[in-house]
Amino acid sequence: MSDPTQMVPAAGGPPPPMPPTDPPTGGPGDGSSADGGGGGMDRRKVAILSLLGAIVALLIVLLIVVMNGGDDDNVSSTTTTSGATTTTEATTTTVAETTTTETTTTTTVAETTTTSEATTTTVAETTTTAPPPTIAPARCMGDDSDQAPDDTAVVFYDAWTIDDNACAERVATDEAIGTLFTANGSGAQWEFQSCEDNGVVEELIECAFRYEGGAAFFEMQVGPGARWRVESVRFRAD
Predict the structure, then answer these.
(1) Which of 78, 126, 169, 211 could in theory staple to 61 by disulfide, Cβ–Cβ 3.0 to 4.6 A?
(2) Are 229 and 142 in contact (CB under 8 A)?
(3) If you ran DSSP here, which 8-state letter would residue 113 be given?
(4) What is the rounded CA–CA span in Å between residue 58 and residue 93?
């Protein structure tokens, strides 16, 4: 079907061709010329009516769009082609965004501190003190022994060097002990000389000890029971 708008001349174009001046060939009873003119008129009316219909359809679509308020979820568009109306629905799909939250589990390990308590053991130090040395009882018998004067004199000297006062009391008088034991005899290095009768007093004998710078004389006398003991002590410097 040809476009009916082609029958309308364009504005500003060349004028339409003039109709032929020749009279129609047919007679009055022939309807070919009349039919031809009527057919062109009908096609023009049809084109105008189609155009009006398209305008009306477009106005209806615009009115629907305005009434829907420009809804983005369902938009209708109309395309008009040769008087036919095509409606296309655009569908908008909304995808909900899902957020996944990851849970982190933290494990706390308690630190245990073990304290070791040191135990201190105190050991008491025991000091053993040895008893002081003494003269052997077999040598220190005093008046109960049969010792010679020189033996008694040496026992008295040895008792002084180790401060054995008990033994000294067995073989000497208090006067002799008081004289000799006044000094400390520890470390003394006297040398025994001999025992001789001094010829002055009967039964009185002197036993001599020599040391550096002088000499000591123990005066010995026979006591009760005819046993010797030291009666006195005297010193002489060189």
Answers:
(1) 78
(2) yes
(3) -
(4) 27
